[in-house]
Amino acid sequence: MKQSAIKRVVPSLIFLILLLFSISFLYPVFFMINNSLKSSTAYLKSPFSLASGNLAWDNYATMISQFQIFDLFKNSFLISVFTIIFLLIIGIVASYAFAKLKFKGHNIVFILTISTMFIPAQVTMIPLYMLFSKIHLVDTYWSVILSYLGIFLPEVILLLTATFRGIPDEIIEAAKVDGAGYFNMLRYIIVPMGRAGIMLCIIFYFIVTWNDLFIPMVFLQNMKLRTVMVALSALASRYRGDPTFQFAGLVLAAIPAILVYAFFQQYIIKGLSAGAIK
Hints:
CATH superfamily: MetI-like
Structural class: mainly alpha
Strand content: under 5%
Order of helices and strands: HHHHHHHHHHHHHH
Number of domains: 1
Radius of gyration: 24 Å
Number of strands: 0
């Protein structure tokens, strides 16, 4: 009887814990959306009350018309997309070599590549800024994209190498017997069978680069080139007396990352478990 009672209680307890975690994660989002629909007076009077009466849609209209947030979206989108493209092109080729090709010093090169993950990004900013200044890349998208490549490429290689190791060697050997070359192998076997890990990279690094503040703030001084997060940071210091205006900007800035996660979240578990079972 005691065991049957425990079996009934444990699922309910787990559900309750997960529900509390969900509320703790979702409440900040609700707080941001709710207060973005208030006037500054209503917010300062009662920040934890529900928005009611005449909702302040003007906050969003101002962000779109005067702050021109969609132009900032373009900057963030270009940086995120080109970063992901280069990460995948280099990462897929390198990961296939580490996972399936045997060459002298294979493990040493892999360990050295992965070890760069442990170098803090802040340590590299001054040398990178000096380098980019000399080759005139400061205040261009390329300074941010190349910085992201240096920081995130080892992580991509680690994930995709684990994913590609889960592809049976027999399939690759059969393709070689059929005359498949190196690039055909990548196109028709490695990429399709490693799709879960590749999609995880797309989701994760789009969200990370879209939400990043530090690197674009360092390298992009031109207001026309700044990403949405850098511009919203400047907005926060400029409009401290109107927090609802800032909330509206944050809600709009969060939409692309949320949409990417919502559409592709099914690949997250598949990508994380890829390579665990061969």
